[in-house]
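Work through what follows:
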Amino acid sequence: AYALPGFVLGPLLMLVLGVWLGWLPVAGAEDWRHLVLPAVTLGIGLSAVLIRLLRATLIALWRADYLRTAQAKGATAARVIWRHGVPNALLPVTTVVLLQTGALLTGTVITETVFAWPGIGQLLVTAMQQRDIPVVQGCVLLIAVIYVGVGVVADLLYPWLDPRIRRPGQGQ
């Protein structure tokens, strides 16, 4: 799923789900149904990375002493995973999710063009075609501000997700 680029997956989804099956509209931005194909196109590759990372992190954590202790106390495997494993695996997953924001923003350029969806990606492509430098600069600046903002959100989320990360002076 990660290896399939959006400019291949998008038209493939349009052909199968829109043209052949007629389940979803293939272009435009009129209601929520028009958002399904672009969202799936953007999300498939990114979710594949997250699922693999979460699985690998949980497998590595499964050998941890605190998880074996929880199992030894009689907790079911599902409870051990959801109560103890997943919260500890969220930190690396959160890091990757926030880093993928850049990939998501750059992927919108192609996806919005393929699906004729109005947005910053479509605006950026149109501005580049018309050689409208101020609009291109504004779009790139907005994307950069969003990317930096996501980094700030990550820094604020880490202590909340893992109390061991709290900085000195923040209290226990």
